[in-house]
Write a structure and sequence with these properties.
Layout (H helix, E strand, L loop, with lengths): L12 H4 L5 H10 L8 H12 L1 H8 L18 H10 L5 H14 L7 E4 L2 E4 L1 H13 L6 H13 L6 E2 L8 E2 H11 L9 H15 L28 H8 L11 H9 L7 E2 L25 E2 H16 L3
Antiparallel strand pairs: 1-2, 3-4, 5-6
Length: about 325
């Protein structure tokens, strides 16, 4: 194997292209094989995603107003299912637009901030705001003025050193997860949105992560969740996710990524696959996801983590001078 695959112990790309998992197949075709959205294989995979049992279950269980379950609050009633649809690669439809509008109507404040209502209070949540920005960009809301407002708010709260703080807390503590979420959202920004302000915000966040071993931020002890890989991540992150965001803008020989890169490469098995090491965080973990799709087994080879690892290596190789 040559090029970006030279760092692999085996070639798992054919495994990712299996038609039994149209979501992984779709993203592998787009990210690893650079097939255009309109190609026949990509179009077929997208159609298979729309017809798949998980996507159909999610869509069919949506309430007429646009939310899911019994909690009508726009954040709690839409966040999980919308992110699951995004993760699966579900194509946009009327139900997804209804859910996005329902959530925006209840969570996007007049100035563009993202607010979560809890016990008569509204908490500003940059992590979920960045998550919402990704949804809006991916599902055709780039021309909606609310998208610009949300982006503007995220840019306005970034600290000079690049970190995004949790602004609802009294001490506005720095949140590396929210910073990673913002970088993840920046991946979907249209080229025309690449203003000097956006570029500066991205550069500051990238330098922050590079100078923090991708996860430390002045901490001697690293939260172990940063070092375990899994999918979906929801509003959290890990070293692999951060390196994927940073990869297009850093040389693969940069000394600051060598330790985390070595750690990532060391996790692959003899077939060039990576294992699932964690399930989504939260009060109920990923248990609710299993209503729609089975979570990957902890310790078993993961198509999703392998896909992300291969994409990261490919991006790093492309950034090489």
């Amino acid at each position: 194997m040559s090029g970006w695959k030279s760092l692999l112990r085996g070639d798992a790309t054919e495994w990712l292209l299996e038609e039994s998992d149209p979501s992984v197949r779709y993203f592998a075709l787009r990210w690893l094989f650079d097939q255009p959205e309109k190609s026949a294989e990509v179009a077929q995979a997208r159609q298979a995603i729309a017809r798949s049992a998980p996507v159909q279950k999610i869509i069919e269980s949506q309430r007429p107003a646009g939310y899911w379950g019994s909690d009508r609050r726009p954040h709690e009633g839409t966040r999980g299912q919308m992110m699951l649809l995004l993760w699966l690669g579900a194509p946009v439809n009327e139900q997804i637009r209804k859910a996005i509008d329902y959530r925006l109507g209840g969570c996007l404040l007049p100035g563009g901030a993202y607010g979560v209502k809890w016990k008569e209070r509204t908490f500003l949540a940059p992590c979920h705001g960045a998550e919402m920005l990704t949804l809006m960009l991916r599902y055709g809301y780039a021309g909606d003025p609310r998208t610009r407002k949300l982006l503007g708010w995220l840019l306005s709260i970034q600290e000079p050193d690049g970190v995004v703080p949790c602004v609802s807390k009294r001490n506005h503590f720095p949140c590396m997860w929210a910073t990673a979420d913002m970088l993840r959202a920046f991946r979907d920004l249209p080229p025309r949105w690449e203003t000097a302000r956006v570029k500066q915000a991205r550069e500051r966040a990238i330098e922050l992560f590079l100078d923090s071993n991708l996860c430390r931020y002045h901490k001697k002890k690293v939260d172990p969740r940063w070092l375990r890989f899994g999918f979906p991540l929801a509003f959290t992150s890990d070293v692999l996710d951060v390196l994927e965001s940073v990869a297009p803008y850093v040389s693969p020989t940069d000394e600051r990524i060598q330790e985390p890169l070595e750690m990532i490469l060391g996790k692959q098995d003899r077939q060039g696959r990576w294992a699932c090491e964690k399930h989504p965080q939260g009060a109920s973990g990923g248990k609710w996801i299993e209503r729609y799709v089975a979570l990957e087994e902890i310790g078993a080879p993961s198509k999703w983590v392998t896909l992300q690892a291969l994409r990261t290596l490919k991006l790093l190789h492309a950034a090489a001078p």
